[in-house]
Amino acid sequence: MNQVNFETVPGKVLLFGEYSILFKSKGLIVPYNGFSGTLKLNGFHTESHEIIKALRSYLMDNNFTNIDFDKLNMAIDEGLYFDSSIPMGQGMGSSAAVTAALVKSYGLNIDSMDSLELKNILGLIESYFHGKSSGFDPLVCCLNNTLLKTASGAVESISLPKTRGEISIYLVPTGEERKGAKVIADFMEKMKNEVFSNDYNKDYIPLNNSCIDSFLEQKADLSSTFEQLSISQFSIFKDSMSPEIKSLWLRGLECKDFFLKLCGAGGGGFYLAFSFKKEFIPPIDWIELRLKDIG
Description:
By secondary structure, the protein is α+β, with helices and mostly antiparallel strands. Helices cover 42% and strands 18% of the residues.
């Protein structure tokens, strides 16, 4: 039997930087250990076994050189599959995690790569699932570190503040499978409009960057800055939202007990809620992101 010590790989949460991370903004991505997955053997009848076989064929057809196919083929013959609690199609990194798990177990020369090189390799593999991947999501899963993508494109492993005062962060489930591809295509079409693109680069990206700086530096203005980010995201992405999410989003902006934002591409899956009120009691189905589970 193929003897491999498989590591558990976390999910991920993109705290800040949806879409703007593609246009020279900052991005803040954290591993989320509340959801995770591990490669295992003897899963011949699982869906993930078939997915891994198809991914193997895709990589071989494209002459991918950074995977040890001899070892991977042996494991596939023994029923290699990805046993995961990460919900699929919800923006929590299901494809990023399986990509990271395969590279950690079967990648070649991975230890000699810097973060940018590894990100590019992971992005090429995850592109099988999305058509195009930046590689940031699987990099977070692979390193199990919080990553800051700088405006210059550099990738830095950082630590989150040990305390966040009265800030609470929640995953807000919609129960809807994410339609990320359509939302992304719609946004990229908008960016072809010069007026929209100029406003986005001039107004939204600095707002996103300010939120990241205020969050990491624990500035007092984070609440007001985040409220503006929530208002801006609603304006840009409301057409992709369900009536229920629209109503919840507007209720937060009105009562100011919480503010919603995207968690990934949007269009379903999870959203994020930030509350700056110590006395706030969230709905029972919201999942709090605790320090032990992120960063």
